[in-house]
Write a structure and sequence with these properties.
Length: 507
């Protein structure tokens, strides 16, 4: 879908401000970018902006492709990580959408989201593939040169071997040598990726570091290579020795003779960040499409619902019903209210978040939410335990959004705890991976979450409730991530589950 001319005029009119903000944020993106001269950052931002503008205006990607080739060569030469450059491209969409969310520009948003997503998807996928091809070419050329040197300079084999190891140990990808199925050499990057030392990896079967579900694929590829049969040029598998969300690995290997028998040399690369980025692009596209459908249907559905609700209220007051007839009328009114709730949750999921950051007392927020839900808590006989750390600083956030997120968690906990159960609400200050955070959380003593459901908790429309919409936790995560925070889930099968909302700690 092409953007409307009004959006393109807006983009042209604001190009200087967008490019300035882009260059400023680029310098803060990573240590690598911070080391680059400001003039270089402004030059590359200007090239990227004009390439995007031409693509949005004409639909032609030629200029984007030229810029991808230019930036790939430049960033490979200076040792940039693939993820850093992908994030740099993503800044364009972040900045433009941030400005479009301002009240004066919000009418341009529906026509701008899909074209922006298409441009970014094309750029990131194209850059990732091009970066990978050029990186592979450099590594393969280097490996072939090493092989030639080993064969031509047998007399200097020991010295060449030391150089070879020194060079291989410096590359960021995992490099390994396998003979008869066992590891004969692995560089530090390989050992880091698999959570072992060289002493632990030496002589071990390579399959020991491959996840069980990926072993048949890797084993078959190895057998094909040993038999001289054609194998996949690039093999993806999940590795052990790291968290599951970081396990996606890409491997390229070949059979060579280094003078002491045939061995398999290969390179493995962590591609989990790339897969996450691709999944985010697909999710953005899907939510944008869902937003269009929801916006068009909401008016057509909500107006009839309002009329039905009003008429039900009138009939409830005028008709003298009793027994099952009164019960039927009440059930109908409740179902109308449930449909309204579903429409409201759908709109909350696809509508751009409007935030008004201000200092928020997390403990006070928790007490306020519990007061709102007190009638329902008392009705179900649920015990509530509150644990609030003393001297907790104020969090910076949107109080309404945080209240909505916490209420969703409380309602889920109350349902999981069942009548007579117990829920705990806490606030505290913590630290993880060198970063401080403020946390507000809810736990219950219910049955916990089924293991197979954990990966799908935050997927839209996934629910095990008979009357649920599967959008509550989606909106919780969306609100917290908009605050720069995260949602941490801890599951205790048979004993309950806990959800913690972590927000950035103020300086």
């Amino acid at each position: 879908m092409a953007p409307n001319p009004e959006f393109l005029r807006w983009l042209q009119a604001n190009k200087k401000d967008i490019m300035r903000e882009w260059a400023e944020r680029l310098a803060q993106l990573s240590p690598r970018y911070a080391q680059r001269p400001p003039s270089e950052l402004r030059y590359t931002v200007r090239g990227a902006f004009h390439a995007y503008r031409e693509a949005l205006t004409t639909g032609r990607m030629h200029r984007i492709e030229q810029f991808i080739d230019y930036i790939t060569r430049k960033r490979l030469k200076t040792g940039f990580a693939l993820s850093d450059v992908q994030k740099a491209f993503e800044l364009f969409r972040t900045i433009v959408l941030g400005r479009l969310l301002q009240p004066a520009n919000r009418h341009l948003l529906p026509q701008a989201v899909l074209p922006l997503d298409a441009c970014l998807s094309y750029t990131i996928n194209g850059f990732s593939d091009h970066f990978q091809r050029m990186h592979d070419l450099l590594v393969n050329n280097h490996a072939r040169e090493l092989e030639r040197q080993v064969m031509e300079r047998t007399a200097e084999l020991a010295d060449e071997r030391r150089r070879y190891k020194a060079l291989v140990e410096e590359i960021s990808d995992g490099f390994f040598v396998i003979q008869r199925g066992r590891i004969r050499f692995a560089n530090p990057a390989f050992c880091r990726m698999h959570g072992v030392s060289w002493e632990q990896a030496a002589g071990q079967s390579f399959l020991r570091y491959v996840a069980p579900d990926s072993r048949p694929l890797v084993r078959q590829a190895y057998r094909n290579a040993q038999a001289g049969q054609e194998s996949p040029r690039c093999l993806e598998y999940n590795r052990l020795g790291c968290p599951p969300e970081r396990a996606a690995t890409e491997m390229k290997a070949r059979l060579v003779d280094l003078g002491q028998g045939r061995v398999t040399i290969g390179i493995c690369r962590d591609v989990s960040e790339r897969l996450v980025m691709e999944a985010k692009v697909r999710e953005h596209e899907r939510l944008a499409y869902l937003g269009q459908i929801t916006a068009s249907l909401s008016h057509e559905i909500r107006n009839p619902l309002s009329a039905i609700k009003m008429n039900m209220q009138i009939l409830s007051r005028k008709l003298e019903l009793d027994g099952f007839d009164r019960r039927r009328l009440d059930i109908t009114a409740q179902e109308v209210m449930r449909l309204e709730l579903i429409m409201r949750q759908l709109l909350d999921t696809v509508r751009p978040l409007s935030m008004e950051p201000a200092p928020v007392d997390l403990a006070g927020l928790a007490r306020g939410c519990l007061e709102l839900l007190e009638p329902r808590i008392n009705e179900n006989g649920i015990q509530v335990c509150q644990r609030h750390a003393r001297g907790l600083p104020l969090a910076m956030g949107d109080a309404g959004g945080l209240q909505q997120a916490l209420q969703n968690l409380l309602l889920n906990a109350m349902e999981a705890a069942r009548p007579g159960g117990r829920i705990t609400v806490w606030t505290r200050r913590g630290r993880a991976q060198g970063q401080g955070f403020l946390e507000i959380g809810v736990s219950d003593n219910g049955p916990g979450i089924a293991a197979e459901d954990l990966p799908r908790l935050f997927k839209p429309f996934f629910t095990r409730k008979s009357l649920g919409t599967g959008l509550g936790l989606v909106n919780v995560k969306r609100i917290i991530e908009a605050h720069g925070g995260s949602v941490v889930v801890r599951n205790r099968p048979g004993q309950g589950a806990s959800f913690a909302l972590r927000l950035p700690c103020p300086p």
